[in-house]
Amino acid sequence: MSLITARRRRRAAGYAVIVLGLLTAGVAYATVTGQPGTAAAATPSSASPKQIAEGASLFSVTCASCHGMNAQGTSQGPSLIGVGAAAVDFQVSTGRMPAKEISAEMPRKPPVFDTAQTHAIAAYIASLGGGPAIPSAAEVSPIGADMALGQSLFITDCAQCHNFSGAGGALTYGKYAPALTHSTPTQIYEAMLTGPEAMPVFNDTTITPAQKRDIIAYITTVRSEANPGGFSLGRIGPVTEGLVAFLGGIGSLVFASIWITLKRREHT
Ligand code: HEC
Ligand code: HEC
Q1: What number is the average pLDDT over the span 158-175?
Q2: Main-chain phi, psi angles of 250, to 5 degrees
Q3: Is the CB–ligand 2 distance for residue 158 below 6 Å?
Q4: Which contacts (CB < 8 Å, 24+ apart) does range 201-206 have?
Q5: What burial letters (b/e) apply to 215-243, b meaning 16+ CB within 10 Å?
Q6: Per-residue pLDDT reduced to its tens digit, 232-252
Q7: Which of 54, 58, 66 to mutate to test the pocket of ligand 1 (most atoms within 8 A of CB)?
Q8: CA distance to 44, 230, 232, 236, per residue, from 148 (Å)
């Protein structure tokens, strides 16, 4: 075996080891920093009589003063019969309810109740009759959704109020559509299903369940992106950007130094 081939082979093996090393580190990085919380979303189970009773008692203490002892409505608040579990979960988990006072704006606040309590009140209201249920974790999961379709639906159906990047905006009639920066996938789904306040209802005929997932995927992706590098990598997300920066940046540094060393060696 000639000296040249041996050297070439060693060089090629060196490159291969570095590429392999970078890929392994990159994949490990992506795994460690990968999508948090998607599996943690609670999936509501069907309500038990005990859960409904717990919800009824929380309701009578906290909500009945405005919504009535049997949720039939008062001069202080609308009837909740038929609004469904999704409306309750949206209003209570975003801290809008229990309202402190009656006003046109119901801003997002830290929630008063935990998830179990919120689901109990929702189960109680659902037991009074109909309305949309709380979507399951699978129904709201952005994994595998069509981001491009989500973007075009968002632009046609949501952007006129919520702005193009979901940053919120003033509405023509003096109301304000909030930023979507803190909404969970479940809350986004529920907002579409129940149309809080000045927002229209997007039922499953207007926007199918699959399209709702596409919109959720789009919203949760664009808002997590700062576009630091100036180009967006097809808006796939910060993990991808980190990975590309890592492989590209570190990789080219390593190659540059190897190249310089080799050149030196060849000249001596
Ligand atoms: C201070 C009075 C007040 C209290 C207390 C209150 N609400 Fe409300 N609630 C309102 C008013 C007023 C509205 C209508 C707001 C609007 O149109 O944006 C409303 C709206 C709602 C809606 C939306 C109904 C729909 O048609 O989508 C739900 C659900 C709801 N409340 C649940 C609750 C629950 C559950 C509690 C207790 C944890 C509660 N509220 C406590 C006044 C109150
Ligand atoms: C006509 C204007 C309008 C349109 C169109 C609209 N929204 Fe809204 N949206 C609002 C308003 C107003 C609120 C605040 C309601 C409240 O505070 O009770 C809101 C609230 C929300 C929230 C709750 C934000 C939070 O506090 O976490 C979400 C999520 C949301 N909208 C998503 C959407 C999506 C997705 C679309 C498109 C499919 C859409 N909206 C279309 C006006 C609009």
Answers
A1: 72
A2: -60, -45
A3: yes
A4: 202/157
A5: bbbbbbbbbeeeeeeeeeeebebebebeb
A6: 443 444 455 555 666 677 667
A7: 66
A8: 29, 20, 14, 11
